[in-house]
Amino acid sequence: MKIVVTGGLGFIGSHTVVELQNEGFEVVIIDNLSNSTEGVLDGIVAVTGKKPLFEKLDLRDKAAVQDFFKKYKDVSGVIHFAASKAVGESVENPLLYYENNITTLIYLLQELQQKPEASFIFSSSCTVYGQAEKMPITEDAPVQQPISPYGNTKKIGEEIIRDTAKATNIRAILLRYFNPIGSHPSAEIGELPIGVPQNLVPFITQTGIGLRKELSVYGDDYPTNDGTCVRDYIHVVDLAKAHVVALQRLLDKKNLEKVETFNLGTGKGSSVLEVITSFEKASDTKLPYKIVARREGDITEAYANTAKANDVLGWKAQSTLDEAMKSAWKWEQKIRSKVS
Ligand code: WQD
């Protein structure tokens, strides 16, 4: 039986492929290489010694998606990462996000609903909570109208999956990620942001390696301990392992409802300044940064209540912020040594 990983050459996708292979699953990666490279396959092989099947395919091409499922009839589950994910870009180009993130989901589900049974894991995001009232955030916190079209595609995606699962034989788990960071300890795979990183940690490591002059901290006048925003930074390997646990739950039909939702975080909030301090410890360097104006659309704080993931899913994040930052720095040094 095969497991399809869409976006499997991306940051979280590639780490999940490694963990699936470690558990003995046969993986077929679908990726259109819009935000990744085929070289990531070598990194996966370097870690596991096994080369996953790979199909270069744009999920917006309905006929190509249909042909894929005609070719691979023994697919028992799909983990769907492939999507555009830059908040700022989604505000400038909403239709790109609605087309790429929603149409592709529909084409995948249309194929899966033809199977006698199918397991579907959806890459969602804590962004659907907007600024939640209560910390830590539980899965039953109200889903608010997300601030960005990117966040809205995650909210709409969840709704499409809920309605489809009710009417078909698809069983699904929605995984709401907090802030994925770090890299595989082998430094064979990691985050490869294209252009100027929008996210905090890759910008920090690129500043630390000298690629960026200094980090701009977007505001220190928030109502938090040190005035900077608080997030729940989760090691990407912990996140990847959660996908394997969630998939196994569906394959074993242990799910309690047709669609289950889990927050994936560490349960601990860290401020931007705390992340900088963690990086300085990891790299034994001083990070150049300046405080600038707030970034449009940023929320003050978000960190997960992990009780449901711990007790029902049977998964718990293992790595600390410091361990994740160390892995992020090791990866940055490795890829820059390749470039120079
Ligand atoms: C974290 C904190 C910034 C960059 C987004 C998406 C989420 C997920 C992860 C895709 C914030 C501050 C950042 C910088 C800074 N996306 N920051 N200087 O915005 O919490 O979440 O990315 O999977 O769905 O919403 O993550 O890393 O961009 O920002 O001060 O150069 O770091 O203000 O407080 P965010 P982020």
From TrEMBL:
Keyword Isomerase included in the entry's annotation: yes
Mitochondrion in keyword set: no
Cofactor(s) this protein requires: NAD(+)
CDD domains: UDP_G4E_1_SDR_e (cd05247)
EC number per UniProt: 5.1.3.2
Listed pathway(s): Carbohydrate metabolism; galactose metabolism
Enzyme class: isomerase
GO molecular function: UDP-glucose 4-epimerase activity
GO biological process entries: galactose metabolic process
Entries under Pfam families matching the protein: GDP_Man_Dehyd
Family: Belongs to the NAD(P)-dependent epimerase/dehydratase family.
Subunit structure: Homodimer.
Protein name (database record): UDP-glucose 4-epimerase
